[in-house]
Design goal:
single chain, alpha+beta, Helix Hairpins, eleven-stranded mixed sheet, five-stranded mixed sheet, 23 strands, 40% helix, 15% strand, globular, ligase
Length: 847
C-alpha cells in the first residue's frame, strides 16, 4: 500500500482511500515480472556508448490464434472483472475483497494473453461470434440502467406527491426513499445520478436491417403523440375554450411528455423529430409501399385535410363565458388596468403591478425584478423597522447564504418543514461538488454556531443580531409576485437571553413593531395572535403572528411572525453560559427568539388598497407623496414657462418641508394622460395648477384614495399654508385608508359559538367560509382536528393543482378575540371532536 487508509479528519470531513501499488489498468505496456536487474538490462544496452550495438528485440512466442468468438468471450470476461474492481473501490469495500478481485483480474489478463497472443486492451473489443456468459461481476451497463430507472421512478413519485399536495409524512418518506436510491446508485456506479444522462444498457441490438428498428419507430410514435397533444392545447386556447377543457388537455400533454421521457430517456423537443418510420413529405407522393409508407402518407393526408373539431364542453358546470378582448376605442390606449378587481383578481393583480411599474418578470419562474417604485416601499419599511430594533439594542450583521448539508440537517424537526423547498448547489462549472450546498431557506443553522462561540458567560448575554438579506424557498405552489415567490427579501432577527422572561418580553416587542408596520405605515388592519401547535415554527416553543385580510379574495394572509424558540436550538448548538448564581461551573442554556418580515408586505398593501384604476399607496411609504401637474391652456410660451416655473417652485418648497414631491413637467404628454398615469401609480395626492389658479393663487387637490377634488387658496405664495394644507391632507389620507381597511376586516370576521353539539355551529362556520369571511370559534388546538376541519370545509370544491387551498386553515389564536370563550362553549368546532376546548381560534382561507 502506497497510501494507507485514513478516516475523515476535522478539516476536510473526507476519508483518504487506500492506494495499492502497481494495479494494472489495461494498458498495453507490459510490467516486467522478473527482478529489477533483469528488467533494466535492455535499457542499459540502449544507452551505452555510440559504438555499441542495439540489442534486437526478442521474438515473442505467440500462442496459437483463438477463434474470434473465443477471443471476444475472453475479452468480456476481463472487462467484467475490471468493472468489479472499480465498483468495489467506489463502494470502499474491505481491503481483502479488493485484493481478491485484483488477483482475479490479473489472472484473467494473463489467461487472455496466453490464449490470444495479445495484451488485453479495454478500448479494443475483438470482433466475433456470440459472447461468453458474463463473468461474476456486479453491475455493468445493464445494471446501471436499471438503477437509473429506479431513481428516476422515485423522483417522479416525489414530484407527483408534491403536486397532489399529499400529506407531509408521505412526501418526507418518498424523499428519503429517493435519497437512499441516489446514494445506492452512486455506490454501485461510481457516479452521481443525473436525470438528463440515461446510461446505455441492455442487450446489444441485432445486426442492422434495412427496415427501421422497433425502438426508433416507438420513439417516433411517442413524439408524434406528444406533438398531437400539444396542438390540441394550442387549438383550445386559440378558441378560448372553457378553463376545465384546457386544463384537461394540458394534463394529458404533461402526462404524454412524462411518458416520452420515461421510455426514451430524453426530454421531448418539438424541433427534434426522432428518426424512424417517418411519413414522407406531403409534397411528394410515395411510390412504394415499403414499411407502410403509402398507408401512413394517406392517413396523414386525410387527417390534415379534415377540419379541426372542438372538444365537446362538459355540461356539468356553469362556466362564465370567456371575455372577448375588445379592440380599444378611438383615442384610447391600453396603458391602464383593464381587468376588474372583483371579477378577475389574478389578472387585475398582474396588470396592476406591471403597468404601475413595480416589477418586471424574469426568466426563472417564481423570481421577479423589483423596480425602484416597489423597492422604495421596502426601503421605507426597512428604515422604520431598523431604527426601532436598534433602539431595542439589536445590531445588524451578515451571514453567508450557503449552508452545508450537515449544518442544515442538524435540527431535524426544524428542517423538516423546509426540506421540500430547499434549493441545492450541486456543481461548480463542470465539476460535481463533493457535498451539495443549500441556499439558505432561513439562517438558524448558519448563525447559531457563531452564537455558541460568542456566549461563554452570562455577561455575554443578551446577543441580539439582525440581518437584511434574501432567502430562497423553492415553492411548488403557484408563484405570485410579492405574495409567494421563490426568492424574497426579508429581515431575520435572532436573539439569545439568559432568562425566559427576558426572551418573552422581546417576542411581544417585535410583534408590536410588525403591527405598526402594517397599521401605521401600510394602513392595513391586522389580527395579532398566537399560532396553533400545528402552525407554529418548527423547532420553536411558540409563534406569534399578525394576520391581515384581503376582501377581494376572501382570504387571510400571514403578515409577519415572532417566534420564541425556548432552549431547543441552544441545546442543539450548545449556546450555553456559566450561571454563577447556581454555583461555579454550572452551565445553563440560553433562551432564544427569531423573527422576520418580508417583501410580502408590498403584495398585501396592493391587494388591500388598490382599485380598478391602479395602485393606492399610503402616504407614509409612497415614493412621491405629492405630484404637481400643470394643466389648462396657455396662450404663449411665456405663459407656459410661467406656469411650469410656478409648479417647480411649489415642488422645491414642499421638499424643503420634508414632503416627497414631484412636478411632472413633461411637455410631450397631455394633462389628462398624466392624471391617469399618476392614478395608476397610486401617488396619494395630486395638485393641479392652471393659468387661472396662478391668477387666483390657488390649486386643486385630488386625493387618490377617494378621487375627491378640493380647491385650496394661498398654496402658491404662502409657504405656511402650503405646508399645513398638504401635510393635513396626507395625514387624512393615511387615517382614512386605515379606517376603511379596519372596517373591511371587522365586517368580515364572524364569531361562531358552539353548544352541547356543534352541528348548527359547523353549518354556520361553512356558510361564513363560503362567503369569504374569517371565523372565530372554540377549538381544542389538536393537529388532527385542524386537518379534519380543512378537509371537511373544502369537500366538493375543485381546486387547480398548486393553487391556494379552499379549505379553512387555523390562522391564529387572537389575543383579543371578537368574543371571549364562554363557559357554555365546551365543544370544539370540529365535527365529532371530544377534546377539551382551549381557546377561541380564528379560521379562514389563506394564501
Amino acid at each position: 500500500v502506497d497510501v494507507p487508509y485514513k478516516p475523515a479528519n476535522g478539516a476536510t470531513f473526507q476519508e483518504t482511500p487506500a492506494i495499492l501499488f502497481s494495479i494494472p489498468d489495461g494498458r498495453t505496456k507490459e510490467v516486467a515480472k522478473t527482478g529489477a536487474k533483469q528488467a533494466s538490462q535492455p535499457a542499459k544496452e540502449q544507452v551505452r556508448g555510440k559504438g555499441s550495438k542495439k540489442s534486437a528485440p526478442a521474438k515473442a512466442v505467440s500462442a496459437p490464434a483463438q477463434p474470434a468468438g473465443d477471443a471476444l468471450a475472453l475479452w468480456e470476461e476481463v472487462t467484467a472483472y475490471g468493472d468489479t474492481v472499480r465498483e468495489l473501490k467506489t463502494a470502499k469495500a474491505a481491503k481483502d475483497q479488493v485484493t481478491a478481485a485484483v488477483n482475479k483480474l490479473l489472472e484473467s489478463k494473463k489467461n487472455y494473453k496466453a490464449k490470444t497472443g495479445q495484451d488485453y486492451d479495454a478500448k479494443k473489443k475483438p470482433t466475433g461470434g456470440a459472447s461468453a456468459p458474463a463473468a461474476p461481476a456486479t453491475g455493468g451497463a445493464s445494471g446501471d440502467l436499471a438503477l437509473w430507472e429506479e431513481v428516476n421512478k422515485l423522483g417522479t413519485a416525489v414530484r407527483d406527491l408534491k403536486v397532489a399536495k399529499a400529506p407531509k409524512d408521505k412526501v418526507t418518506a418518498a424523499v428519503n426513499e429517493l435519497l437512499e436510491a441516489k446514494k445506492n446508485f452512486k455506490a454501485k456506479t461510481g457516479k452521481d445520478y443525473d436525470a438528463n444522462k440515461k446510461p446505455a444498457g441492455g442487450a446489444a441490438s441485432a445486426p442492422a436491417q434495412t427496415a427501421p428498428s422497433s425502438a426508433a419507430s416507438g420513439d417516433l410514435d411517442l413524439w408524434e403523440e406528444v406533438t398531437k397533444l400539444g396542438k390540441a392545447v394550442r387549438d383550445l386556447k386559440a378558441a378560448k375554450a372553457p378553463k376545465d377543457q384546457v386544463t384537461d388537455a394540458v394534463t394529458k400533454l404533461l402526462d404524454g411528455k412524462k411518458t416520452y421521457k420515461t421510455k426514451t430517456g430524453k426530454d421531448y423537443d418539438a424541433n427534434k423529430k426522432p428518426a424512424g418510420v417517418a411519413a414522407p413529405a406531403t409534397k411528394k407522393f410515395p411510390t412504394s409501399t415499403a414499411s407502410g409508407d403509402l398507408a401512413l402518407w394517406e392517413t396523414v393526408t386525410k387527417l390534415a385535410a379534415a377540419p379541426a373539431t372542438k372538444p365537446a364542453a362538459k355540461p356539468a358546470k356553469k362556466e362564465k363565458a370567456p371575455k372577448q378582448a375588445q379592440a380599444p376605442k378611438k383615442g384610447e390606449t391600453r396603458l391602464g388596468v383593464e381587468a376588474k378587481k372583483d371579477e378577475d383578481l389574478p389578472t387585475w393583480f398582474q396588470q396592476t403591478i406591471t403597468k404601475a411599474g413595480l416589477i418586471e418578470y424574469y426568466d426563472v419562474s417564481g423570481c421577479y425584478v423589483l423596480l425602484p417604485p416597489s423597492y422604495n416601499i421596502w426601503e421605507h419599511i426597512k428604515d422604520f423597522f431598523d431604527k426601532n430594533i436598534k433602539d431595542l439594542g439589536v445590531e445588524n450583521c451578515y451571514f453567508p447564504m450557503f449552508v452545508s448539508q450537515a449544518a442544515l440537517e442538524k435540527e431535524k424537526e426544524h428542517i423538516e418543514d423546509f426540506a421540500p423547498e430547499v434549493a441545492w448547489v450541486t456543481r461548480s462549472g463542470d465539476t460535481e461538488l463533493a457535498e451539495p450546498i443549500a441556499i439558505r431557506p432561513t439562517s438558524e443553522t448558519v448563525m447559531y454556531p457563531i452564537y455558541a462561540k460568542r456566549c461563554q458567560s452570562h455577561r455575554d448575554l443578551p446577543i441580539k443580531m439582525n440581518q437584511w438579506c434574501n432567502v430562497v424557498r423553492w415553492e411548488f405552489k403557484h408563484p405570485t409576485p410579492f405574495l409567494r415567490t421563490r426568492e424574497f427579501l426579508w429581515q431575520e432577527g435572532h436573539s439569545a437571553f439568559a432568562t425566559k422572561a427576558e426572551a418573552e418580553v422581546e417576542v411581544m416587542q417585535i410583534l408590536d413593531l410588525y403591527r405598526q408596520v402594517y397599521e401605521d405605515l401600510l394602513a392595513i388592519a391586522t389580527v395579532p395572535g398566537r399560532k396553533t401547535v400545528k402552525e407554529k415554527f418548527a423547532g420553536g416553543d411558540y409563534t406569534t403572528t399578525v394576520e391581515a385580510y384581503i376582501k377581494a379574495a376572501g382570504r387571510a394572509i400571514q403578515g409577519a411572525t415572532s417566534h420564541h424558540l425556548g432552549q431547543n436550538f441552544s441545546k442543539m448548538f450548545n449556546i450555553s453560559f456559566e450561571d454563577e448564581s447556581k454555583g461555579k461551573g454550572i452551565k445553563e442554556f440560553a433562551y432564544q427568539n427569531s423573527w422576520g418580515i418580508t417583501t410580502r408586505t408590498i403584495g398585501v398593501m396592493i391587494m388591500v388598497h388598490a382599485d380598478d384604476k391602479g395602485l393606492v399607496i399610503p402616504p407614509k411609504v409612497s415614493r412621491y407623496q405629492v405630484v404637481i401637474v400643470p394643466c389648462g391652456a396657455t396662450k404663449t410660451d411665456e405663459d407656459k414657462n410661467k406656469l411650469f416655473n410656478a409648479c417647480k417652485a411649489l415642488e422645491n418648497q414642499l421638499k424643503s418641508f420634508g414632503i416627497r414631491a414631484h412636478a411632472d413637467l413633461r411637455d410631450d404628454k397631455k394633462p389628462g394622460w398624466k392624471f391617469n398615469d399618476w392614478e395608476l401609480k397610486g401617488v396619494p395626492l395630486r395638485i393641479e395648477v392652471g393659468p387661472k389658479d396662478l391668477e387666483a393663487n390657488s390649486a386643486v387637490f385630488v386625493r387618490r384614495d377617494t378621487l375627491e377634488k378640493v380647491t385650496h387658496s394661498g398654496i402658491l405664495t404662502v409657504p405656511f399654508i402650503a405646508k399645513s394644507t398638504v401635510l393635513d391632507t396626507l395625514d387624512n389620507i393615511q387615517i382614512d385608508m386605515f379606517k376603511k381597511a379596519k372596517k373591511e376586516l371587522d365586517e368580515n370576521v364572524v364569531r361562531v359559538e358552539t353548544t352541547d353539539t356543534n352541528d348548527a355551529a359547523w353549518a354556520e362556520f361553512c356558510d361564513a367560509l363560503s362567503k369569504g369571511k374569517l371565523i372565530q370559534a372554540p377549538y381544542c388546538d389538536n393537529p388532527p382536528c385542524e386537518d379534519k376541519i380543512k378537509e371537511l370545509s373544502s369537500a366538493g370544491l375543485d381546486v387547480e393543482a398548486g393553487a391556494p387551498s379552499m379549505g379553512a386553515k387555523a390562522l391564529c389564536i387572537p389575543f383579543a378575540p371578537k368574543g371571549e370563550l364562554k363557559e357554555t362553549e365546551k365543544v370544539c368546532i370540529c365535527p365529532g371532536c371530544k377534546e377539551k376546548v382551549k381557546a377561541v381560534t380564528m379560521f379562514g382561507r389563506s394564501y
